[in-house]
Amino acid sequence: MEDDLANLNLNDQEDDPVTGQEEDDEGEYEFQFCLIGRVLKESLVHFTSLRNVLSELWHPIERVTISKIEEKRILFCFYNKIDLKSMLDSILWFFNQHLIIFHKLKRGDDPLQVPLHYMNFWVQIHDLPLDQYWKDTVKVFAPFGYCWVFKKFSLDGISL
């Protein structure tokens, strides 16, 4: 066996050269399925723990690459739009009870310069009187952004 390995020569076979993927200029860009984020915490976050925990919790179809680009900025790259949408629609935006603020990168965004000050929230209000649904609720929450009011009525345990 040692003689076979000693006589091994890679130049004996002619292989086609490996070519890289061509860049597609038709709407493809580097950060198409990427988010930039930061954990709202005064002290530094243990990056390895964050990467392992979030990649396990999100269960992407393909995978997610989580990279530290600054002390408080983290780049989350998904490899398809389904994984990205699934993550954005989930409520797993916390790490060790600290909120993670995300921003979806758009064409031309610099991941180091994107402001990370805002986050969308879903707020559920329970046991709101029926006459308070529209006017007062919209007046209170509309200044903060979008306001959706869903009515759910219950008659003897039957939801309508």
Summed up:
Residues 12-23 have a biased composition (Acidic residues). With 160 residues, the chain is of the alpha+beta class.
User: How many helical stretches?
Assistant: 4
Count of extended strands: 7
- Percentage of residues assigned to helices: 10-25%
Low-confidence stretches: 15-27, 153-160
CATH topology description of the domain at 34-104: Alpha-Beta Plaits
Q: What percentage of the residues does DSSP assign to strands (E)?
A: 15-25%
Secondary structure category: alpha+beta
Q: Which architecture of the domain at 34-104 would the CATH scheme give at its second level?
A: 2-Layer Sandwich
CATH class of the domain at 34-104: Alpha Beta
Give me the side-by-side strand order of the main sheet. 2-3-1-5-4
Gross geometry: elongated
Largest sheet: 5 strands, antiparallel
Report the average pLDDT across residues: 73
The topology string of helices and strands comes to HEHEEHEEHEE
What radius of gyration results from the CA coordinates? 24 Å
Distance between the termini: 76 Å
Strand and helix layout:
Elements lengths: L1 H5 L27 E6 L7 H12 L5 E5 L5 E5 L2 H9 L4 E2 L2 E7 L30 H7 L12 E2 L2 E2 L1
Antiparallel strand pairs: 1-3, 1-5, 2-3, 4-5, 6-7
Task: Characterise this structure.
Residues 12-23 have a biased composition (Acidic residues). Helices cover 21% and strands 18% of the residues. It has 160 residues and is an alpha+beta fold. The strands form two sheets. The chain has a five-stranded antiparallel sheet with strand order 2-3-1-5-4. A two-stranded antiparallel sheet has the order 6-7. The protein has helices at 2-6, 47-58, 81-89, 135-141, and strands at 34-39, 64-68, 74-78, 94-95, 98-104, 154-155, 158-159. The chain is built from four helices and seven strands, in the order αβαββαββαββ. The longest helix has 12 residues, at 47-58. Residues 15-27 and 153-160 have low confidence and may be disordered. Among the domains are: 34-104, Alpha-Beta Plaits (2-Layer Sandwich), CATH 3.30.70; 130-159, no CATH class.
